[in-house]
Amino acid sequence: ATPVAIMVGNGVAAKTGILFKTAASLEQAGKTQIVALDKTGTITTGEMKVTDVIASEESSEKELLRVAYALESKSEHPISKAVTAYAAEKDIPLENTAEFEVLSGNGLQALLGSDRIYGGNLSYIEKIVELISSQNRSFIDKLAREGKTPVLIARNGKLLGIIAVSDVIKEDSPQAISELKNMGIHVVMLTGDNEITASAIAAQAGVDEVVASVKPDGKEAVIKQLMEHGVVTMVGDGINDAPALTSADLGIAIGAGTDVAIDAADVVLMKSSIRDVAAAIRISRKTLRNIH
Ligand code: ADP
Ligand code: MG
């Protein structure tokens, strides 16, 4: 790489708000064959909101929200923040819990008085409650098909109900993904969310492939698998994304993301739009052409 070509490429990139940390990262971007995008906070805004509250037959909305509030108020997860804000707005009383525990990538549990309370995804709650009625299963399925994340709340062995949370796809994500595909790049979405919700979001976004139910420590392994098929650029915003950003051939962090992700990345996008992923690759391709 000639220093002049690198300087020119970096100058163009900086004007767009794309920060290449090294000359090597500016050269690497153009070699990308596969782009792996984190879902929450990267393709979507990451600002989750409660959309549906469905108490099960033997519970009530008040009771469901009371238990959910006590549990979710203990966590900083985007799902927890959405549930907590919703319960506070509904003037639900906040009760104290003990023995609070996070089951990373699955949900939460704690002790409320003498009751064990749980909140999380279907595969986690299914192991705890005696029965999830076919009616509740069809609610869960319907919510997921709408691209929402169903959070199941249980107490002792019983399901109290379902709270759906959802965030929206960033306005320019579908266009950004279509640009990448037009550049001959294979686009994959990674998420800890369940398969049905993930597929609904993937269809809206237009990605080629989805890898769902990825555990927080599993993104790195997925990247290593993808690297067997081509040169991989990983794009993410969260603490969970840091090992994957480091392992990939190139790591791109969303500027509005966590410091951990920004530190782990080779490239930082100041405008937090994934259209700048395509722009970064294009600038690098031009830079490489000027060299050879
Ligand atoms: P993501 O990749 O979307 O950030 P996570 O790995 O954090 O997802 O979580 C995966 C899934 O585990 C969530 O979609 C949700 O179903 C469940 N989950 C995780 N944390 C919580 C929580 N605090 N409250 C309820 N459910 C949770
Ligand atoms: Mg994320």
Automatic annotation (TrEMBL):
Give the subcellular location. Cell membrane
- Name the source's superkingdom: Bacteria
The family line of this record is:
Belongs to the cation transport ATPase (P-type) (TC 3.A.3) family. Type IB subfamily.
* Name the record gives this protein: Copper-exporting P-type ATPase
Instruction: Name its species.
Output: Butyrivibrio proteoclasticus (strain ATCC 51982 / DSM 14932 / B316)
